[in-house]
Amino acid sequence: MRNAIGRRQFLCGCCAVLGAAVLPRQARAAGDPEIVPIEFASFHDQTFSNEYLQFMNVTIPPGQIAAYHRHTRDFAQVYMAVSDAEGTPLGGKPVITPRKVGEVLFTNYTKQPVVHQVANVGASDFRIMGFELFDSQPGRFSPLPRPEPYVSVIDNHRVQAWRLILKPGEVAPAMQQAAPGVRIAVQGGMLVECVQGKPEHKLNLKYGDFAWQNAGPVRTMRNAGTSTVELVEFELK
């Protein structure tokens, strides 16, 4: 085994200390693992929430494990840093699924809930940024098509996701944010955002920055820096 310290039985010190005083527990037979909600799972940081979603920033260091947690809501995510991450469904066998930085994934946990744990058995951080959708009934919003260089990477019954890559000096033409959603910076840089009827807005985005975006604005984006910028923008349905 790659980790001789028995990674499957490791629990983060925070969770061990909190114990029954804070974490919701479920009745279980002796020897069964404790299962916690996603927001209580080790290394899962709930950084933002509103009436639509709960945003999670998850960074699992090498040799560490996010113990068993439950997914019951639809979840959209972007892979921000990849490593050998070993996922083990409750009662199942561990599996490593190769991923790429910037890869976008949607999982329909509302239809098929999952309990699993994730162990980082690689040599670098494993990081995802994403969100749970609170409302299980889609259909409130209708995203509009976007012009190139926006590229649609997900389009399903819950979300539309777009990737925008701008090299220095490149411009993304006018488009309308027809539905509320989330922006995640996969590669940061200097952008100038021009929203119709408002002054130019310069943004110094960093890797891992995220922002909630309201529906309505018509905007253009221009790379005013010296490095390539990559964004993933989700719109809700």
Task: Describe, in short, the structure shown.
The chain is mainly beta and 237 residues long. The protein has one helix spanning 13-22, and strands spanning 36-37, 44-49, 53-60, 65-71, 75-81, 85-89, 95-96, 104-107, 114-120, 126-133, 151-155, 159-166, 171-176, 181-187, 189-195, 201-205, 210-213, 218-223, 229-236.
Describe it:
- The chain starts with 12 loop residues before the first helix and ends with a strand.
- Helices cover 4% and strands 47% of the residues.
- It contains 1 helix and 19 strands.
- The protein has one helix at residues 13-22, and strands at residues 36-37, 44-49, 53-60, 65-71, 75-81, 85-89, 95-96, 104-107, 114-120, 126-133, 151-155, 159-166, 171-176, 181-187, 189-195, 201-205, 210-213, 218-223, 229-236.
- 27% of the residues are buried.
- A 5-stranded mixed β-sheet has the order 1-4-9-6-7, with no helix packed on it.
- Residues 1-29 form the signal peptide.
- Keywords: Signal.
